[in-house]
Amino acid sequence: MKKLSFSVLFLVLLTFLPTAHASAQKIGVMFSESSEKYAKTTHPSGSFTSPNTGRVQTVYPKVDYSSTLDKELKAYHMYKQMGYDVEKVSESMLSDVNALTKFDAVVFPYTVMMNHQQRESLKAYIRAGGGAVFAFQAARNESAHFPQPGKPDVSPLIFHADSWIFEWDNLTEVFQSRFIDDVKLQNATVTAGNSTHPIVANAQAELGRKLAMTDTSYNWVEIIKPWQNKNNNIQPVLFFSKYDATDKSATMSADTYGAAHAIQYGKGRVVQIGYKIMDYIHVEADDNWEDHTKGLAFSDKKGNEDAKAFMKASLNWVKAPNQSNNKRQYNLSLYTDGLQAYVSPRGFVYRSTATVKNNGNVPARGTLKVEILNSSGKVVGTSHQRYLPGLAADATTNNADKRDVSKHHEKFEIYLKGLPAGVYTARTSFTEGRLDQKAVGFKFKTMAEVKTFHYAGGNTHARFSAVPMFRDVSQSGGAYYDIKNLHALGVVTGYNATTFAPTKTITRTQAATMVLRALGVSPSSNANLNVSDLQRGQYGYDVLATAAQYGIVSPQNGRINANAPMTRGDMAQALVNGFKLVGPTTRNFTDVPVTHQHYKAIQTLAALDITTGYQDSSFRPEQPVNRQNFSQFVNRTLYNQAK
Fold it and tell me: What is this structure's pTM?
């Protein structure tokens, strides 16, 4: 009898003692002060008019929610009791990608409030290999526009997002999904269905049975739908299997939408949970519980052990070493057809239809613009433009709108009254970025198409022709499409009219010029540069002085070295500072020690897959860059940053 009692006691101790595997890695649990505060606020209904599109949206009243702090405390104590090394994550840490890299995974219990910088930091952390578990309502409200007392709550609109395609603003691409709706379900049960995902297999193995969680009340859930894109990596692992009633019968159907999804973004892994899973969980711990719940599960929720097993298996999956890389692919096609240019009763008119389509695995948004340039490169007439709040990374019509939301057609006409005879260029471009973003580095042209038309004057029709490519840039070369796109954008103009000199070393002045053009920044004659080797009025002064203001170039020992070769290290600085790139310092190059002046910039380029370095694990920061390589880096940067 004593022997049996000892054995039982030993087994019990084994069950609750921390395991070596669990405690070997650092886990963060987000404690969001703004989300905690937001849960307890109340606000009236109202309306909101988008400053970008003019669309009027209804703002529903905000009621007092149950405590977000208590959900955070539940997650924190639950994982500690499971044996994990857990630390609280603050809002300031969330804003710093390098502060996040100490964690193998971060758990977000109802972290509804985030600002743009925090979402960007979190996106970079996951992309570089971090893990995240989002337990309901993640990052859907804009904390920079926290609702004011007595005023309608516009924060759920992500303020300037303007489209459900961008429900999570700049974090949307991580979820690889379209937000469908907030739906109420009564007496709903969540199960794993027929899923064989490792998360489900491990959770059910620990339980020794099938997963099942039931909410007997009439409660909100989040409905999302993965983009139908072969390059995405997302799959549902739990489902809303049955329910008695719903307020959105036209939307909901049992076992159709995932209740939780397993996602791979870049080198990182994510679990997104669309129901209030923390309310199912019971945790006993002495702490300052806000609602005095003492960690109890809600009385209308059944499935405490199931929820715990799923949260544990989810954490283990996202923090596990991952060798694959589901790369971010920004890929737009842009073209015009039906071109006409002739003299009409209202004057010379240029007509066409522009089409922009998202072929990548990340959403896009920005401004489609058509402009006419004369032979001097000056814009003539009034340009046509249209802001597109969202182009989904969804190649099918199998989505909530029952139409292709990845493509936009725009018919337009531009009148050019009194246009003299000559040769003109029609440039159609797409500028990536929210319409309200004004700061340099947050909005820039990513794609363009150019066509030339010859107008002989009088009542003649113009003749169209393709813009010739540089004769020394081969289509078989690795930089052909980078140079072609930058040429169409007006970022590069060639070494002369017909050649590009791709293998010629690029100077610091030339490199700064390209970066400023890519950013849409004109050199300023008011910019100052305090160096000994270049004076105001000399060639390149305005360019380099302006570039220095944005950190694109820096003086070296009191000299700007305008005609010196641009090195790979200086290039990293130019791109990271100019485009405000964010990435963690997790890559080791043999020739870039932590003390190197460009260490962080080089690390950021590597984290974003803009550079991989050389096969010998070196970066060669002092090596000069030639014109074609610099073009490749600039174009990759344009494609790698959508904010």
Answer: 0.91
